[in-house]
Give the backbone structure.
Amino acid sequence: MGFYIFTYACLAVCLATVVWRVRRQLTLPVHLRWEIYPVQHEPAGKAAYGGSYMEELNWWEKKRERSPVNEILYMAPEILLMRGLWKENRSLWRFSFPFHLGLYLMPAALVLLLTSAVLTLLGFAEDGIVAAIVEKLIVAAGWSGVLAGAAGSLGMLVRRLTDREMRAYATVADYFNLLLILMFFICALLALIAADPLPGAARSYVMGLLTAGTAVPGYAPGQSLPGALTIVLGSLLMAYIPLTHMSHMFMKYFLYHRVKWDDEPNRPGSPLESAVKKNLEYRPTWKAGHVDADGKKTWRDIAAPAPKEIK
Amino acid sequence: MKTLLKPSEISRAAGRLCRIGPGELAPLPPPYEDFNATVPKPLNEDKIKNIEASLDDTLAIGIPKPATKEEEEELIRRFLSGLRKLFERENNWTFLRQLTLSLEHCARCQTCSDACPVFEMSGRQEIYRPIFRSEVLRRVCKKYLTPGGKMTAKWTGDIDLNWTAIARLAELSYRCSLCRRCASVCPIGVDNGLIAHEIRKLFSQEMGIAPKELHEKGTVLHLRAGSSTGMNPLAAKDSVEFIQEEMEEITGCPVEIPWDREGADILLIHNAGEMLAWPENVGAFAILFQAAGLSWTLSSETAGYDAVNYGLWYDDVQLSRVALRHADIARRLKVNKIVVGECGHAHKALIETSDRLLTGKLNIPRESALVTLENIVMSGKLSFDPQKNDFPVTLHDPCNYVRSMGIVEPQRRILRRIAPRFREMTPHGVDNYCCGGGSGFAIMSGYNFTDWRNLVSSRKKFLQILQAFENEPPQTPRYVCAPCSNCKGAIRDIIGYYKAEERSRLYYGGLVELIVNALDGMKKPIIQFGEEPSWQ
């Protein structure tokens, strides 16, 4: 039961951290525009060379064209294949891509394991076609993810240790993160090779997680050392990754959609204009003389009249 | 191979962190090899004995050294106080999201390094690496703002905060031209240019520390006298009267430049530097707008005739003040839109960044002059003779038009129509390189900063320009079209510094001049190559 409690606790930390990070971004005030072109939701013709609606005469009189399809067509290879890194830093991509592929395939395998467990609980026949497909996908995702992740994390660690430019900026935490991930993948690989190639124990563990250990009375988690370490390290990683800079795996959404591609114009009477008006009511406390802030005056007060220095 | 400087060394006591040795800068091709061993002129040690000058071979701000230990401690306290404010919505709602995202998610993969022209051209001096200053700020934030940060510093990257480190960081924020090329290549979306911008802001808004060209002689003078050039409204009108006469010699007929015409369709705001340094640019707009029959006006109100907004580079409060002033002038003139002249940062400041500062009646529509010009050229109302521009032309892309605003094609469609020998630089468009004068560098000239700019930050642009014209015969005049006042300033200085007019027959100017140069019916060309007219 200890394993289950540990995984539950790690999952709780993971969810709480993700919710905290996302909520913080969602509740931040509207910021000044700072986009970078190409902005991929421009129609394909403009996105291809980095053009914007500001290239149009009297653009504010025209209906804005946005292309969510174009955005998806850009983001899919960016997320799945790391196109940006391929284009700009190919020598690192060789390690980073398998590393990230491994990290993507682990949650994918977990989702498949959960699906398999739910199917079993719902009474689907274990030798039925749906269950068989899920089983095969579990094996494929598990093995390929572990192999890619092990090779990628080892490569990333070696690269960080041997590349003098990366080494000069690496912190103890950077090495620890890579070592932790590498250890997880190595343990998972050993577990697959030595004890659980299909992986039946993993399925039982996930079933146990879903049912608080009641549905698989004959199964005790962590029967092999690599298997036990895989559960512990995997659970730890689930909690740890969102706490670190590696949260860029999901926070990249905000970096791209809320900053890099946030080109929404402030139209009169729009909700955006209301948000701007609210911002102008903040009361800054900057201390430099020319700012003329005292914690009582609003941004609007400070920006609108002639500043102290020119009175 | 020398050991790489680490971010933690910013607080080390002794000597300058970086000195560029002869031959370390990226090499220039013939006939400029004689500059390959040139380094910035040494700082005058007598002049800087009371100035913090421990970063590198130049100075952008010139912060006075604290006179006492107490003063030094107070400066450290104020820095930390300002640092906290960067993360408060009351104080930094303007850039809080961008800052937190960029500080929290960098993987230190170094993909940004090769994108930075300053880092590359300096011979990869470590302090100019895009993440060097970001990593300093990141570590200081973690150690001094995070609960338990001092205990975990060895884990997350230790750094000591002392006055030397703070003074170096202030200077270092002015070794990045905020071109944001690094941000455009970052796979995660981290923006090191933004971090440099936020460091500048902390120093300005909390500690009152900024280069005098940007603050006292920049935004403060702009709001007080009417222009960062120091021109008051009367002087501006005098300059324009002179320009009007000059233009009449070119057109051979009267040219009207309207002032303060209420209810005009367009309020045109130039960078006032054009009136003094490149009057033909202001004149060319007048010729073209008049020929196209546009309803337009200039404003003679304080700040209404100068589109610059240096606040964009270092201070959100000053940015807001200038933007609100511009918008209010347009509101009172009852114009339908503001058209911003050929000035990249003024475009970004007024059209894009300030978009979320202007509400209600101040939210006047704002448009790029490049778009207005394209409409005039392509409308078919005017007749052009491209053969008058029968000389090699290349286009410099100001970062603020392309990477920051996505205004890429209008200027190209114009050039393809009126400049038959137009060719691109490599790379161009949103992948362009900064002129080296971005973020205020073009107007900063204290100490030996101009030297540093010409040798380091503008070097990549110089190489690009030379490459664009490399197959042209030696005697052919070459025109660098730079539709931005600050970029023109930087390119003018490159040409002068490297003697490129004599050695490569390089000339420069704006876009509207090329348009008017090809306009049918002109008595004289508006573009000259030295004393030589561009057409007879």
